[in-house]
Each structure stands twice: as structure tokens, then as C-alpha cells.
Amino acid sequence: MTAYRRFRDRRRIGPVQVGTYYDGRGRDKHAAACTAPGCGFSADYTDRSAAELAANTHRCKA
Ligand SMILES: [Zn+2]
């Protein structure tokens, strides 16, 4: 991830961080990003539960 937005409700699930941020268009979005070096997994979701599910099921390549 390049631009760091203002995350809140950050939570770590294994190596993956899940955070909620405001997308600037009146909606909240949820990001899941792996913090393991060399993995590079990150994705945005419209549902918090989807982001947490992705974090839970992430199979780290690193
Ligand atoms: Zn990973």
C-alpha cells in the first residue's frame, strides 16, 4: 500500500492487519493488508466481515 489513509479499528489477525477507513465519498471501507515482508497481499472490502474473513483465510506466501 502506498498512500496511508487514516485507519481506525485496526486489528491484527495473524500477519494481516485489518482496518476501517473513510473513502472520502461518504462511505467506510475496510482494508486487509499482510504485514509479512515479501508477501504484498492487500485488498479493500466494502464489508468489515469480508475483510476479516480474508485476513483469517489468508495463506501467506512469505
Ligand atoms: Zn501474507
List the helices and strands and how they pair.
Layout: E1 8-13, E2 16-22, E3 28-34, E4 42-45, H1 48-57
Antiparallel strand pairs: 1-2, 2-3, 3-4
Bound molecules: zinc ion.
Zinc ion is lined by residues 15, 34, 36, 39, 41, 58, 60, 62.
Detailed description of the structure:
By secondary structure, this protein is an alpha+beta fold. 16% of the residues lie in helices and 39% in strands. It contains one helix and four strands, in the order E-E-E-E-H. A four-stranded antiparallel β-sheet has the order 1-2-3-4, covered by helices on one side. Strand 2 and strand 3 (28-34) form a beta hairpin. The longest helix is centred in the last third of the chain and has 10 residues, at 48-57. It is elongated. 18% of the residues are buried. The model has no long low-confidence stretch (mean pLDDT 92). The structure holds zinc ion. Zinc ion binds next to loops.
